[in-house]
Fold each of these.
Amino acid sequence: MLKGKGISKGIAIGKALVLKKEKVKIEKNIVENIDKEIEKIDFSVNSLIKETEESIDMLRESSNNEQVKILEAYLMILQDETLTHKAKELIMNEKVDCVYAIEKGIGEIITNFKNIPDEYIAERAKDIEDIKNRIIFKLLKIKENNFVETEPNTIIVTQELTTSDTAKINIENVAGIISEIGGTNSHVSIIARNKQIPMVIRIENIDLKIKNGDILIIDGDTGDVHINPSKDLVEKYKKLQIDEKEEKRKLEEYKNRVAETKDGYKVEVSCNIGKISDLEDAVDVGADGIGLFRTEFLFMDLDKMPSEEEQFENYKIIAENMKDKLSIIRTLDAGGDKNIPYLNIEKEDNPFLGYRAIRLCLGNKEMFKTQLKAILRASAYGNLAIMFPMISTIDELRESKKVLEECKKELDLRQVKYNNKIKVGMMIEIPAAAIMAEYFAKECDFFSIGTNDLIQYTVAAERGNTKIANLYTKNHPAVIKLIQHTIESAHKNNIFCGMCGEAASNFQYIPLLIGMGLNEFSMNSSAILQAKKTITELDKKECEKLLEDVLQYSSDKEVEKKLKEFIVS
Ligand code: PEP
Ligand code: MG
């Protein structure tokens, strides 16, 4: 058995199709005719643009929306003149050949992207690398694999599956994917989760360990891969597959059900989204609203600041699709681990404690106002709310609200419609804000607790640092007390309190949050149905008793044990 990391759940049983890639060696050559080299680059890029457009048309015909959107993003990169700018400069200044120039010129862009410590941006760097390799293939006239025919129940095995590869595969026949390289946020893993295709990554030299036609079992939950398994093992996994399907089918029941405990305590289960394309899944699983739209991804996807109009169009889509369901648009939370290159944020020693989120917006009022005006305008089309991230002082909240009022006045002058009563809330993700929650609650309409950051700031353990992952825990009694105080303060002041950090979807933690009286649980679409099921099986009074017990503990280990026991009983 091989062991990797499962990044798209489920079990797949099928036949291996190993995709190998040609490697090219690139050397530096000096040329005489520089115009000809530049012409070759333009010709190759243009023919790639044409091919991508053709693929988009083909996929559109087969209604492959997710792949269409991904290729459209690809097309945007190809059409951007800055992509080959550096390469052309190299040809003109150093008289190098076009292949070397592309390798070096686009290579520099990729390195800049890779230096940004953000998993999402790192994945986009891979898209640019894929494009660079395809331009080089074109320049060298190397024929790429054309459309890969797949039989039903194919398991793709590859070193790396790029975005353009996915467009060449009949994804409907793919039962599973194993890829040596990859990340949770890669486009391929997004497609896999969307289409519920089990996927395992990070198995070294995978294309040497598995041959074409091998029978494989892959488990997207555990990351296990079995090669040519025994009949008994296949039978065992087939049974597990049936149980899994049955489980999924049963969860469908919760799509249009209200999340209500056995003793009648109703809550909302909403969706966290990072892109407009996530909206489809949110609607699909019957989310009660959007509890968090991380707008920074809208800014990260572009190479310059999105205009008021561009932002308005995006926020309007959310308002229109979610109709009367509350959709919370969080203002730009850049900085920290989410760098946006064109904002030119100075390098800091401690970016998580630095110039980020609301601090950055209040320091760049015009940028902040552009976003607020776009959200306000979109509020005329549905039930939108505004949420400020990383608030630590009451003055920040007051100043942000003041800027919002200025935006309303400017829109009045422009005679543009918006919802004047739009709800304004804030994230509670800094311990200072949680401790002072009763004061904040008097000056805003709702809270949403961001446990991802709240934990790291409470226990002083960075959220992505695996060396100290044992310290980064939502079960620390201090974290629990901060959450409880926040919810209590919200309720004393008659405002609602949600949670959009990862803890909201944890089935062992949900009872504790129900015990505290949390009003809204917001999470990724894939977790919504399971969370609704968990909630409907609980009794609020029992959860309150659980909370009472947990509040007596001083150790996170004791908390963890108690929460585990509670869910089993
Ligand atoms: C959080 O901190 O819990 C949160 C939801 O915000 P983000 O993960 O975007 O920092
Ligand atoms: Mg946060």
Amino acid sequence: MQVEVIEPHGMCAGVNGAIARALELAKSRPAGDRSPIYCLHELVHNEIVIGELKDLGFRFVDRIGEVPRGATVVFSAHGVPPQVREEAARRGLKVVDATCPFVARVHRSARAFAEKGMEVCVLGDPAPAEVRGIVGEVEDAGGRAFVGPHGVSAAKAKGGAAPLGVVAQTTMNSDEVERAVAELARARRVKTMAKVCGATKDRQDAVRRFCRGAGPGAGVLVLGSKTSSNTRRLAEVAEDCGAKVFTAGDVEGLSRLDFSGVGRLGVTSGASTPERFFMEAMRFLRRVPEHVAIIMDGNGRWAKARGKARSEGHRAGAKTLERVLDWCGERGIRYLTVYAFSTENWKRPKAEVDGLMALFARMLKTKERDFVANRVRFRMVGRRGDLSPKLLSIVESLERKTEAFERQLIVAISYGGRAEIVDAANAAVARGEQVTEETFRRHLYAPDVPDPDLVIRTSGECRVSNFLLWESAYSEYWFTDTLWPDFSEADFDRALESYAARDRRRGGA
Ligand code: IPE
Ligand code: IPE
Ligand code: MG
């Protein structure tokens, strides 16, 4: 079975923002404070996320009346009606509003219609919190709302000269919304404003594109919780396109699926599904390494062969890295560690070293938006004290801003495998520790990152050059003559294919 990632998929900005707010709140509690943080409804519709928040002390309630006076309450990403806001104020609750900005926009549109005296048709399923919030907004403005499929019929039947305002739940099937709007427009004058949000539509369109390209008999695997409306819509879209649809909320569910007979499988995930589950699923379906490390070598020779300055080779190499980071995302590889500058590279001419440091600073500054948009966590490994204060502050600011993301790019700067081991040993000595392999590991630069499964080196050199000496004890190696700036997607896939075919015995028989 050929497994393909459907892009875009997964968490949207609204969900990401809501989770980040909740995590920030948990972190800001004084040490030892175990009082619950209340959340009205599930923050986002995903069991993995909810389970983790419960572990952090979140308590989920269905009614604002269940929150004790004076406590902190988070409004979920789906939004709340104004009546709930008022009740929260009356009860003296501290409110943290995690409403998705697109849902908030639908509220504003619905309210604006109602304030003009228009009736409002809210497309969507009447039950979910999101729709109840929008309806509450219309009613608060003294308006009348028609809701759900019955609402469409009632709004049509009513006719009349006054225009009807139409808004939609942000996670609806965009085709269905268009059909409903067309149906209403045949019966009466309609005005539409906020409809399905861009992230929902883009994910649904990507599934439609995959199904068209893959032809009949293709399968689509949708990852996410049953409670998630946008996840269910993705499955519906795939079904409408004639695909065989599979759904799973966790790895256990995934392991129960039977894909026999499927030639091509597209994988997508809902806007509330954590990326780490998506990547876990990819590793389950294909033998994709969880962690790839690369010795990006050959920039100088690439430049020399073209009669260019070495600095141009480094610039071209930086572009290759951007591409490789995307390829990792598309293949479900969670960690990418790259060797950018070794402890030995300080020996190079000052102009080259200065040029490289300036290139790192520029890259990290200009790419900040991409890291956030693509939900990639940036971190540095290496001797931080060797960096200029300016570069270090850029590094650490980007680390802080991307801390919550699950996919990671780890850049080794002023890094040496021996230096890392020595630094870890000194940290252990300073604490008076008698080390074991397990306790020693805790002093490494990125102790929580699993060892690399695959180490790639470009440019024909078959040596380790002081890279990840501790961590690569059982890594698979793959060498290519290609110089780093020329490293292509086909090269990358060859390395991954080679990895997938290897038998990793780790000393076993
Ligand atoms: C790797 O390319 C990049 C760094 C070490 C910073 P090189 O600069 O080592 O290129 P070659 O090996 O001289 O071709
Ligand atoms: C290793 O490459 C370091 C990086 C890629 C950053 P080098 O080019 O510095 O290593 P040697 O000199 O070939 O061993
Ligand atoms: Mg080199």
